[in-house]
């Protein structure tokens, strides 16, 4: 059984493990503007950027892995996609609004997002598909 001390230890250890494996990314999310007084539709939406760090895995070849197909949150991960994780404290309030990410000079559409962690959620794992 996990104790609160175990969970705290895992949180601190995770910070050490990812420290030298992270790359800069930019997350983009939409903030709704005012509501149209007649249709009640949001107007004047604004795109906001969050500059952060992430552990990123580039899916270069499905043949190099132990799986031929991988489903993540019901999304088939394909060659050219990225799989990346972000500290949950950075995105907890906006997970559902995140629409895209910029990594290594390329833009990716967010295909899936899953909260992860043992005993306590500590990160969000995303699948991004290259926007052509």
Keywords for this entry:
132 residues; mainly beta; 6-stranded antiparallel barrel; two-stranded antiparallel ribbon; 14% helix
Mean pLDDT: 86
End-to-end distance:
47 Å
Strand arrangement across the biggest beta sheet: 1-2-5-8-7-6
Radius of gyration: 17 Å
Number of strands: 8
- Fraction of residues in β-strands: 35-45%
Share of residues in helices: 10-25%
Tell me about the biggest sheet? 6 strands, antiparallel, barrel
Shape: globular
Task: Tally the helices.
Answer: 2
Class by SSE composition: mainly beta
Query: What series of H and E elements makes up the topology?
Result: HEEEEEHEEE
Low-confidence stretches: none
Give the SSE layout.
Layout: H1 4-18, E1 22-31, E2 46-58, E3 71-72, E4 75-76, E5 82-87, H2 88-91, E6 98-103, E7 106-116, E8 123-130
Antiparallel strand pairs: 1-2, 1-6, 2-5, 3-4, 5-8, 6-7, 7-8
